[in-house]
Each structure stands twice: as C-alpha cells, then as structure tokens.
Design goal:
With 364 residues, this protein is mainly alpha-helical. It has 2 domains: 246 residues, Fido-like domain (Fic-like fold); 70 residues, Orthogonal Bundle (Arc Repressor Mutant, subunit A), CATH 1.10.10. The protein has 15 helices and 5 strands. The strands form 2 sheets. The protein has a 3-stranded antiparallel β-sheet with strand order 3-5-4, sandwiched between helices. A two-stranded antiparallel sheet has the order 1-2. α6 packs antiparallel against α7.
Length: 364
C-alpha cells in the first residue's frame, strides 16, 4: 500500500502482518526476554505483601508514561496526592493519578472477562481523560514533529474505518491460533494501536496500558508491574523512528527487536528494584525493632509504611493496627527515630517514608 505522510492512512494493513516476522534474530531475542520476564513473575509472586510493589511501582509508571506526553508532575507531588484526602491538586498530578485508576480498572475487567476489547480501550481512555469521548469522528488529526511542526504521520480517518481496524486488532489480540510468540505479538499490537491512533487524546498512555494488560492476559505476569515508559523516555527518538519505519518501509524486525530489548531490560531493572525494596524493608524492620518502644513496634506496622511512600493515621486505623490517637503516637515515634518525616497537607498530617522515597526517586 502507498503511504503519504499528509494523507490519512486508511490503507493501514490489517493484522497479522503479511510477512514473516519471527526471524532467527527475533526468536533468539524473544527467548531471552521471555526468560527474564518469567524470572520477574516468579520473584513478584512470592512476595508476601504485594501491595508493597503494586502502589510504588504503578505510581512510578503512571508518572513516567504521562511524562512522555508532556504531562509532568514530581514524585513527591504524586505520592502526596495519592495519600492525601484533600484532592485540590494541579491538573497534571490529577491526570497522572487517573492513569493509575485506568490501569487498575482495566486489570479488574480483564480478570473478570479475560478479553482485551475495543470497548475496554475506550473505557481506559475515558478514565484517563475523564470524559465520554470515544473513537475519533472528526478529521484533521496529525502527528507532527514537535520542533519543526512538519507532519510525519496522518492516522486513519473516519469512524467506520477506525472501528474496523480496532475490530481487527481485537481479534488479533485474543486469537492465539497464529502461533506467534506472545512478546513478538505484543510488539505488533503496540505498533498497530499507535498507528490506528483511535482517540483524539490519550492514545500513547492507553497503548502502554494495553501492553501490560496483554502480558497479564497471557499469564506472563500475575501483577501489572512491568512498564516500558522509562525505557521509552530514555530511547525516545529511536522508539518513534522505528515505529515510523514499520509504516514507511515495513521494517518489522528492528521494531520488534527494540520492544524485546525493552522488555528484557525493564524486567531486569524491575527485579533489581524489587530486591532493593525487600532489602530496605528488612533493614527498616530491624532498625524499628531496635529503636522503637516495644508497645509501638510490629512487623505489620513497618510493612504498611512500604505500601506507599506516604502514610497517615487513617491507614493504620483501617488496617486494625491501632485506634486513631494511638496510631498518631506510633507515627510520631517513627518520626522520632528518623524513618518518617511529617508534612502538613490541608488538615492532615502525612508521614513520608524517607528511605523508600529516596529509593524510588533514585536519590542516594
């Protein structure tokens, strides 16, 4: 099919690709990526309190994925907003939190129905954007170079065309009869969704959520804890160039190898982060046992401090660790020994787990 940058790509080829995409290089890379991903799954599955991973890692991903779209907030602002009852935060921070909400909504629906569908994609983008927009109906959507403003891609146009392409993508995702390696298939899915660009806004973030849900659907992960956004940020020009080369040249192999490398390296980094969190938790438990009054210390209390970087009295009460006044005393004791640092937010006192925040933010 002919491709012209300034013409809507209504001839975007349907899936599966009309060429062999599992070359020897691709299959070799897929074996390594699958092995690393399986190791990550195994390590995550045996952690007793998995909330320790879920909240921290997902919030990091929400921030990074949104940053790709120039929706910027700080780690501290995000972690604070996640915990505080007062939700009077800037629009960017709220939108990042909605990304997390959209991911969890998608995860729950996938667990209930086992399918990734176009309707689920619409639910995801509507949750992120907090509107009722669905498939694009208007013309004029283009992808342009942010510096030169030159048009580099014009996605398909017309609701019937977009819905037909989404229907084909949905069938490709949920039908395993093609025998493709799931990680190779994920690379194809990600390209196709980006190329369809079905929504007026939120396509990139929705596509990255689809990635992780697909890995869960294929039981390559139990929890949604592998995210490629940091890798994309660090290789942004290469990411967009390889996507364009699939469109312009049918160059599937370089794109698939890029995604497989991203999966392998991100899985390895996530394992390192899990180990660092586990080691920090163990050290903090030991420190708290030595320094806290016996009436205050419990392993359950210290583990709660690792479920998210900020803690507050209500979280201790909800966990049944202590009643309100006693919970406040416990948090003050933890501040006294330097594990927590208090911060007034609205009418609440929040307590930052200083070592955990430093680990997640890459601070020494």
């Amino acid at each position: 099919m002919s491709f012209y940058q300034e013409v809507p790509y209504n001839d975007l080829p349907l899936l599966p690709p009309d060429q062999a995409i599992e070359s020897a290089s691709v299959l070799k890379s897929a074996i390594t990526a699958n092995r690393t991903l399986a190791e990550l799954k195994g390590r995550a599955d045996i952690i007793p309190n998995q909330s320790i991973l879920i909240n921290s890692i997902i919030l990091q991903e929400a921030r990074a994925s949104s940053e790709i779209e120039n929706i910027i907030t700080t780690n501290d602002r995000l972690f604070e907003a996640f915990t505080a009852a007062d939700q009077d935060y800037d629009p960017h921070t709220k939108e990042v939190l909605r990304y997390r909400e959209a991911l969890w909504m998608g995860y729950r629906k996938l667990r209930d129905h086992s399918l990734l569908t176009a309707n689920l994609f619409i639910d995801i983008v509507q949750t992120i954007k907090q509107n009722q927009d669905a498939v694009r109906k208007d013309s004029g959507t283009v992808i342009a170079n942010p510096g030169t403003k030159q048009i580099i891609y014009t996605p398909p146009e017309g609701e019937p065309v977009i819905r037909e392409l989404l229907s084909n993508l949905e069938k490709f995702i949920n039908d395993d009869s093609d025998g493709l390696d799931p990680l190779v298939k994920m690379a194809v899915i990600h390209y196709q969704f980006e190329a369809i660009h079905p929504f007026s806004d939120g396509n990139g973030r929705t596509g990255r959520i689809i990635n992780i849900l697909y890995l869960v659907q294929k039981e390559l992960l139990t929890l949604p804890i592998l995210y490629l956004s940091d890798y994309i940020i660090n290789h942004k020009s290469e990411y967009y160039r390889k996507i364009r080369e699939v469109t312009e040249k049918g160059a599937w192999e370089p794109w698939i190898l890029f995604v497989l490398d991203a999966i392998r390296m991100t899985a390895d980094e996530t394992m390192q982060k899990i180990e660092s969190i586990k080691e920090l938790l163990a050290r903090t438990i030991e420190e708290a046992r030595e320094k806290l009054p016996a009436r205050v210390y419990s392993k359950e209390l210290i583990e709660l401090l690792f479920e998210q970087p900020y803690c507050k009295v209500r979280l201790l009460v909800d966990k049944g660790i202590a009643k309100r006044q006693t919970a406040a005393e416990y948090l003050k004791e933890l501040e006294n020994i330097g594990i927590l640092r208090s911060k007034q937010v609205g009418r609440e006192n929040l307590y930052l787990n200083v070592p955990l925040y430093g680990l997640l933010s890459g601070e020494k």
